[in-house]
Design a protein that fits this description.
heterotrimer, B: Rossmann fold, 7 helices, C: Rossmann fold, 4-stranded mixed sheet, 10 strands, 55% helix
């Protein structure tokens, strides 16, 4: 399959290892990875801030670039939701409405793609640690598809012990621009999440969404906590 | 009354634009401007609701078993008795244990017999009564419209249960019922009411599900907030 | 920033730092989740039940004029009086006139959120009437001169110790740390109020068009007594409370109980269809229903967000909202809190003044998932943001996003970010978390992520 990979802006800048891991997984499974270098951002910050015309300035070139893809995989629940769920809404009542729907139909979040499109559950990975999962809200509720796939994939990782935290499905508090507009609320939500994770005795919080992990790691590092964060793709490429 | 016209006018104006149909929405399968959900017949609507609500068995034994289980959860005392005599005996036992000095009740086939055996001063609520008199009663004894197995509820009304306050003011509410009053679920209870009263409904109908309670203090359950602290159902 | 927005931010800041509050609310609401999930699982199909409930409410709201007229006709046929109030002021006038005509003095109230909305208690007290709240939680916050913290659990934020102190101070009662004893104190005090009140004021959870009845859902029995003993019963309700048929209650009563309180049915679900009838031994001589618009028709006119009027005020969205759990009910500064409050308040009270409520959300969607009538709550917050900005953009923000689009669309400029960012990173520690730090909103409590030595784009270019 020719898989077009969409790398979120913060993954490109700060967490390239996540993208590199996904490339290596897809290539190992025998697929050709296409990476449109000119795509930088899905436009979610402007969208969530209420500036939809400005969002279209970013989203339209992205949409046109993705139009001819066979299948699109996005390395994050929130960007995945932007393209899959919100592009049709953003471009409704415009000449690009049809294109947005077509692109949406062939867009997948990464873990959902592996398990439910490719039928792959075991990547031969090994990661000796106790981990807990954070379910990113966009994947969980917008896409509605990402609760099970990460758990299925992690269950096949050798040496990995998965412990569920009580607040697994509770929002971490990032919420994009929300984290800067309402920092005290965002921080309180993150603290609740981190406390729940620490309670499990886990060494790592794993998630399919780097933006959530960026926020949680920011809190954990500032507070000098031992708990670390890691993206699902990086766990799956561990040996 | 001027507001009535202007409110209805605003509603009419607003509704000229159709809202998305639930569960389908703008980007879903329904094309724009398509018809809203078709109206369903009353029977079909009631049946549909029955399909989603908790399961209730068809046999009386299943229903009474469910009612008893629900009552236990709700902290309702439920007694299934063999005869009216047993019912009256149980009632007398309760009256003695709780040291009732005065009761509230209304005229009815079951309640008349109950009042007769208890031989206590009665505040009669069939016709006009003094509410201070009712307030000084230790228990209110009433009949009911029906028992509902699905939820462990007692259906009462101002016509069958001695008015509005008898089943709410005294600290102990005792319901006297017969087996044929057991209904399986909420849809059948509402159908029952509609069939019985057609358009001549009483002014007050209530689904009572357990003794009064509150969780307003630290979400801790306390019984007997304002309504009765105890609810007892005697059924034969 | 307008005053309600700045007050919100101030209050939210303060409460999020109150760890005792956080613990209390998390504990209370975790008990709710357990009870709710247990009852949900007893439904044969909770999701289908939601879909059916959503469909019934769609019918109710999208034929609202027809149903309201039918409701009024049927209630009036049984001796009830129906009043229509375009706004809060008219509603207050109507209610005060009814009371004045009866030369009444004392009023007992059960829980009426619409009453809070129109500041009814203040108006009644100003007119010289004494008003007592009979719901235990409402009674407690009334004694504290506070607004309700949650529309189902008004005193959720208080400990038993605080309530005991309150009762000692206001009622002269003995100190106790038993919730049971505290409840009995309130029960005893309120008993005489029920019996002597001239007027009972209630709300309504539903209004049944087919039969001309209102339905009230409660646990304590205070509404039962409020609507049984006084000679006049006035029910105030929003026009959106209508349901088409009596049969609909078979679904809505258990869904309201389950979603709202984790109970299959609350203790009392009561239908009031008129004043006492000729053969009835008690009940009010007069029954008035006041139908309130107060800008609900404005929300109705917004077809995209109209389903927010489907709300049955169960409080489920509050109970699952991580924002609500951390900032508490009072921070919202308005009658309706939590996600549904954030959606409807801009419509009821003005978009520009209240748009901050739609921004104060991470859009996690837990509310939409919890709503028993499938209101698209978190998407409505997004839509309100769009509406607020298109009505009145914040120019520097709009410009910044325009500039960002130029950067994002130009691989060359995008490529320039990294060297500048790495330079900034070198000097940032000097100003981190100080007033000079442009990223202070983040760095006050969090470390910034580091720009990678090699970005993904650089890696990809290298391997080609």
């Amino acid at each position: 399959m020719k898989v077009t990979l969409f790398i979120p802006c913060f993954v490109d800048m700060c967490y390239p290892k996540v993208g590199i891991s996904i490339v290596s997984i897809l290539e190992k499974l025998g697929h050709k990875v296409i990476y449109p270098e000119e795509i930088a951002c899905c436009g979610q910050p402007a969208f969530n801030s209420g500036y939809w015309p400005e969002t279209r300035l970013v989203a339209e070139p992205v949409l046109k670039r993705l139009q001819d893809s066979e299948v699109i995989v996005i390395a994050s629940g929130s960007c995945g939701a932007m393209v899959k769920k919100f592009y049709p809404e953003l471009f409704a009542d415009t000449p690009l409405a049809e294109m947005a729907r077509e692109v949406s139909d062939k867009t997948w979040e990464f873990s959902d793609f592996l398990v439910n499109k490719l039928g792959v559950t075991d990547l031969g990975a090994e990661f000796k640690a106790r981990v807990t999962i954070h379910d990113g809200c966009h994947g969980l509720r917008e896409l509605g598809t990402t609760r099970q796939p990460p758990r299925t994939l992690l269950s096949h990782v050798r040496g990995l012990e998965l412990v569920e935290m009580t607040e697994a499905e509770t929002c971490c508090g990032f919420g994009g621009t929300f984290s800067a507009k309402f920092p005290s609320i965002s921080t309180a939500m993150g603290d609740v999440k981190c406390a729940s994770a620490i309670e499990t005795g886990a060494e790592y919080i794993v998630s399919n969404d780097s933006s959530c992990l960026m926020h949680l790691q920011g809190l954990l590092t500032r507070q000098g906590k031992k708990l670390k964060t890691i993206h699902l793709a990086e766990v799956l490429t561990s040996a | 009354m001027r507001d009535r016209e202007s409110i209805l006018e605003r509603i009419h104006e607003a509704l000229m634009v159709q809202a998305p149909v639930p569960g389908i929405g703008k980007d879903g399968a329904q094309p724009a401007g398509s018809a809203p959900p078709q109206p369903v017949s009353e029977e079909a609507a009631a049946e549909k609701i029955s399909n989603w609500l908790p399961v209730v068995g068809e046999a009386f034994e299943d229903q009474v078993h469910l009612f008893a289980a629900n009552s236990a959860d709700l902290k309702t005392e439920f007694y299934l008795l063999g005869s009216q005599v047993e019912m009256l005996e149980r009632l007398m036992t309760i009256a003695k244990e709780e040291n009732w000095k005065k009761i509230g009740s209304h005229h009815g086939f079951l309640t008349d017999a109950a009042v007769a055996v208890l031989c206590l001063p009665v505040c009669e609520t069939t016709a006009y009564y003094d509410v201070n008199d009712l307030e000084s009663c230790d228990a209110g004894i009433s009949e009911c419209e029906a028992l509902i197995a699905q939820t462990g509820s007692v259906l009462v009304s101002s016509r069958t249960s001695g008015g509005r306050a008898l089943s709410a003011l005294p600290p102990h509410h005792v319901v006297l019922a017969t087996r044929d009053q057991m209904l399986p679920d909420l849809p059948s209870a509402i159908t029952f009411l509609k069939n019985k009263y057609t358009t001549g409904f009483p002014s007050f109908i209530s689904f009572i599900t357990g003794p009064s309670r509150t969780g307003d203090i630290e979400r801790i359950l306390v019984l007997g907030a304002h309504g009765p602290k105890k609810l007892t159902i005697l059924c034969y | 920033m307008n005053t309600s927005a700045s007050q919100f931010t101030k209050d939210a800041e303060r409460i999020t730092r109150d760890l005792r509050h956080r613990e209390l609310i998390q504990t209370a609401l975790s008990k709710y989740v357990v009870a709710r999930d247990a009852k949900k699982s007893r439904f044969q199909d909770w999701e289908e039940a939601r879909q059916t409930a959503a469909g019934i409410k769609w019918d109710a709201i999208n034929h609202l004029d027809k149903h309201l007229v039918e409701f009024a006709k049927n209630l009036e046929a049984r001796g009830g009086k129906v009043h229509w109030a375009g706004n809060g002021e008219h509603a207050r006038e109507i209610i005060i006139k009814i009371i004045a005509d009866r030369e009444a003095h004392s009023i007992i109230k059960s829980k009426v959120m619409t009453g809070e909305e129109i500041h009814l208690n203040e108006a009644l007290e100003k007119a010289g009437y004494s008003v007592v709240e009979s719901d235990l939680g409402e009674y407690i916050v009334q004694l504290r001169h506070e607004a309700p913290y949650h529309f189902v659990f008004p005193a959720m934020h208080l400990t038993r110790g605080e309530i005991s102190e309150l009762f000692q101070k206001e009622l002269g009662s003995e100190p106790t740390d038993s919730p049971e004893e505290l409840t009995m104190i309130a029960r005893r005090v309120l008993r005489s109020k029920y019996i002597t009140a001239d007027i009972g004021i209630s709300g309504a959870n539903f209004a049944i068009a087919e039969t001309g009845m209102i339905s009230i859902t409660e646990n304590e029995g205070n509404a039962r007594l409020t609507c049984a003993l006084p000679k006049v019963h006035i029910a105030l309700m929003g026009i959106e409370k209508v349901l088409p048929r009596l049969d609909d209650l078979a679904l809505f009563l258990p869904m309201l109980g389950t979603a709202g309180a984790g109970q299959m049915m609350t203790c009392y679900n009561t239908l009031y269809g008129g004043p006492r009838q000729i053969d009835e031994s008690d009940g009010p001589e007069e029954f008035h229903v006041v139908l309130l618009d107060n800008h609900r028709t404005r929300l109705l006119a917004d077809a995209e967000q109209r389903d927010a009027l489907h709300c049955i005020r169960c409080g489920a969205c509050l109970n699952v909202c991580p924002i609500y759990k951390n900032i508490g009910g009072h921070s919202y500064g308005t009658t309706y809190q939590g996600p549904v409050g954030c959606v409807i308040t801009p419509h009821l009270r003005g978009l520009q003044d209240w748009k901050h409520l739609s921004f104060a959300s991470s859009l996690c969607g837990a509310c939409t998932q919890a709503c028993p009538v499938k209101i698209d709550l978190h998407h409505h917050l997004l839509q309100s943001r769009r509406n607020a900005r298109s009505q009145k953009p914040v120019w520097w923000e709009k410009t910044a996003f325009k500039m960002f689009s130029i950067v994002a669309n130009s691989p060359f400029i995008w490529g320039m970010i990294k060297p500048f960012a790495r330079l900034g990173q070198m000097f940032h520690p000097l100003i981190k978390a100080t007033r000079l730090d442009p990223a202070i909103a983040w760095t006050r409590s969090r470390e910034l992520p580091k720009v990678a030595p090699q970005t993904f784009k650089e890696y990809w270019r290298k391997r080609k």
